[in-house]
Design a protein that fits this description.
single chain, 2 domains, 109 residues, 0% strand, mainly alpha
């Protein structure tokens, strides 16, 4: 089973429901699985919670995709020899600046 695995040794231990719930909560705060969290804790690794939560990261990615779509449409128009209105470029620039501000604030929390 584990011949090709780098980590071929397995450690099993039991916990009660209350202990597991606590481990699960702590692991979720670190955006890790319970086994990964327990391993890091056992190794006395320094754990830091992520500065941006999962939902925040997904929202930033969604907004970036939207901006990317707009840039792609403008690029297509430019490649077809059509003019690109400056107000559309300014709007994209504003969206990027607002997104960068949101990202920077999230990192400082």
């Amino acid at each position: 089973m584990g011949e090709n695995r780098k980590e071929n040794r397995q450690i099993k231990f039991r916990v009660n429901d209350k202990e597991f719930a606590r481990l699960e909560q702590m692991a979720q705060e670190m955006q890790m699985s319970v086994p990964s969290f327990c391993k890091k804790q056992a190794q006395k690794a320094r754990l830091r919670p992520p500065k941006i939560n999962r939902e925040g990261a997904f929202e930033i990615a969604r907004q970036l995709r939207g901006i990317g779509n707009n840039v792609n449409q403008l690029t297509k128009r430019a490649n077809e020899g059509k003019a690109i209105p400056q107000d559309e470029l300014q709007e994209i620039k504003k969206e990027l600046q607002a997104l960068w501000q949101q990202f920077s604030e999230a990192l400082q929390k």
